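Troubleshooting entry. The earlier prediction with 1,3-dihydroxyacetonephosphate gave an output that would not parse, so I re-checked the input for stray whitespace and re-submitted. Clean input:
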Amino acid sequence: MSQTEIAARVLVQEHLAHKHLQAMPIVKDIAAQKVRIKRLLKQNDASLVAHYYTDALVQELAEETGGCVSDSLEMARYGSSAAASTLVVAGVHFMGETAKILSPNKRVLVPTLEATCSLDIGCPANEFSAFCDAHPDHTVVVYANTSAAVKARADWVVTSGIAVKLMEHLATKGSPIIWGPDQHLGRYIAHQTGIDMLLWQGSCIVHDEFKVIGVQQLKQVYPNAAVLVHPESSYAMSEVADFVGSTTQLIKAAQEMPNKEFIVATDRGIFYKMQQAAPEKLLLEAPTAGNSATCRSCAHCPWMAMNDLDKIEQVLLLGHNEIVIDEELRQQALKPLQRLMDFAAAN
Ligand code: 13P
Ligand code: SF4
């Protein structure tokens, strides 16, 4: 395990250690706070864009205010088409950056600048650039979960929702491919498409924790449950899946598949929208970390969890935590990102 991964795991443990404190009853008037935030959103001509992994209260607020709750691709699409002059992006840092790259004239605020992603941390731009330089004949494809600087070094950006389709398209061009940073998603794409890719060895600390043994044990209790897996999980997990897909695709699968029970291997934040989409279905969290785990399901991204109503209210009051990107870097990062947006629009 690399130093970066160890450091990321320590952060997760610290986050989990504080969970019981957060569960202590704190008398708080959420309804009054939501009214204040709604007023602030209007005063700031702002729209709230939230990822499915954020807390249910945050997603609910985005829905109630005509904002957007979605996956990475749709968040990017929505941000650039929204009429609001300010976007409050509740997710992780790269999502705020993506919004800024696509909408330079909008003010992009994030509830906290500390909400990062293990894939982003595990792919420093200088090291990734050196890796690409060592393979100059390769087309460089990076996952959206990367910094603006890494995107600037890439030929294409992809999200999980469109990865297989886009890579099949790139395969017809014939040039060898570097894929980064998520090794699991890369491996899944390679299996799906037969494309041989050079993989950067990054991973998501949340999806890394789902284990086949845990799913098999839960299947013994719920033999008719369908297994839904996000492709940031290990390839072994996708082999036991009934369906593999991005967050939006997983929600659709829960809605459309005939099963009444689902074992869901992705961040538990997704349950808010999944249950809305499939109210009559039983949704079960896929167990994490196998037999010896002290936590049987801690599938919640510590960085996504940093987005709460307090921080959203604060950022709207103070206007701090603005995403700022150097213009030359933004222009470079825009090229591969715009290719993704154009491909998504056409396919
Ligand atoms: P999608 O929402 O695009 O499936 O990505 C999941 C994710 O990792 C967000 O951090
Ligand atoms: Fe990154 Fe994983 Fe958190 Fe998504 S869930 S932001 S991939 S660490």
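This one parsed fine. Residues 53, 92, 117-119, 145, 204-206, 232, 267, 301, 303-304 surround iron/sulfur cluster (ligand 2) (CB under 6 Å).
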